[in-house]
Inverse folding.
C-alpha cells in the first residue's frame, strides 16, 4: 500500500455494500483488524467516520468487495495525510469554528 495511487474520496459515489454480493469471502481476522485500525483513526479524522461505520457492519461476513472498500480508505488517507484534528494540551480553553451557510 506504500506505493498505491491515492484517491480523492474515501468511498465511491453511490457504492452499495451488501452482505451477499457474490464476491468470495476474505480473511475476517485481517478485515476486522483493518477496520479496527480505521476506527481508531476516526478520533482525528472525522472525514472517514461514515465509511468506517459502513465497513464495520460487515465484520462477521467480510467479502472481497468489503476489503476493496477498506483499502480504498487507506488510499484516501495516503493522499490526505496532512488533514486531521490536532488535540494539544492547553491550560486555556479556546473554541473557534467556521461555518459557511451559503
Amino acid at each position: 500500500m506504500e506505493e498505491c495511487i491515492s484517491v480523492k474520496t474515501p468511498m465511491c459515489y453511490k457504492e452499495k455494500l451488501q452482505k451477499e454480493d457474490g464476491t468470495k469471502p476474505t480473511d475476517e481476522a485481517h478485515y476486522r483488524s483493518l477496520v479496527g485500525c480505521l476506527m481508531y483513526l476516526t478520533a482525528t479524522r472525522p472525514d472517514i467516520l461514515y465509511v468506517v461505520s459502513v465497513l464495520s457492519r460487515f465484520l462477521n461476513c467480510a467479502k472481497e468487495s468489503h476489503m476493496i472498500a477498506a483499502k480504498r480508505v487507506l488510499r484516501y488517507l495516503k493522499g490526505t495525510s496532512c488533514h486531521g484534528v490536532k488535540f494539544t494540551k492547553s491550560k486555556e480553553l479556546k473554541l473557534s469554528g467556521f461555518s459557511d451557510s451559503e
The chain has a mean pLDDT of 88. The chain is about 35% helix and 0% strand. The helical segments are 28-41, 49-55, 64-79. The two ends are 38 Å apart (CA to CA).
